[in-house]
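Recap from last week: sequence in, structure out.
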Amino acid sequence: MQLSEYARRLDDELDTTAYADVDASANGVQVGPEDAEIERVVFAVDAAQATIEAAGEAGADALVVHHGISWGGIERVTGSTYDRIEALIDRDLALYVSHLPLDGHQDLGNAAGVAAAVGLEDREPFGEIGPVTIGTIGEPAEPLSAASISETLDGFEGQPAGEAGPTRVLDFGPDDIERVAVVTGSGVDWLDEAVEAGADVLITGEGKQQVYHDAREAGITVFLAGHYATETFGVRSLASLSAEWGLETEFVSHPTGL
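Predicted structure tokens:
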């Protein structure tokens, strides 16, 4: 399959163009000749030296990631940007990126993966950013407890390191949890929207100082399960989809501990 055809299929599936005006990431092919033939694709959360090298060692023709190397454009090809582009070109490795489109996809996305793991049903798009959404909200078949959600989240790959336990919990909501909002990565800015939507819980990756007070005063529980840990689901889903298209696939795990 040509890289251009593969990218077109991914763009169509993820509705990439809908996010063009709100996403700082240059989604789509960031490095590579569009007429290149690809047979083997490696998937990872981040485009970094470690994952590029791993993809090269795996004999990949393309690397698909959630976090790419171009954010708001590339003014100078120096430093780590030069090193990463050089590493991709030296290995004849194309780079395809999907940031917010892969957060918000209601079947393949990161939030969808977290929601499925927690057992949320009747899910709807959540987490507005301009005309699009980057999360999901739903309800469990039966009320959940904060402890049961923590147990699920603690089982995610690449959980943050720390003696206090991998998932941080700001437990200010009701004991019986009946509605859960999910925005992966850095999603605490959508706390107010979660409250307005009647959520008992917001699940995200990492937090900010002010979210403690905001959650306490609003009476909502917030789970901080790790940026990396909440964002492996999307690229894994794309790997499964790509395998259905006849490509050889592999997921490379490189947790950041954050």
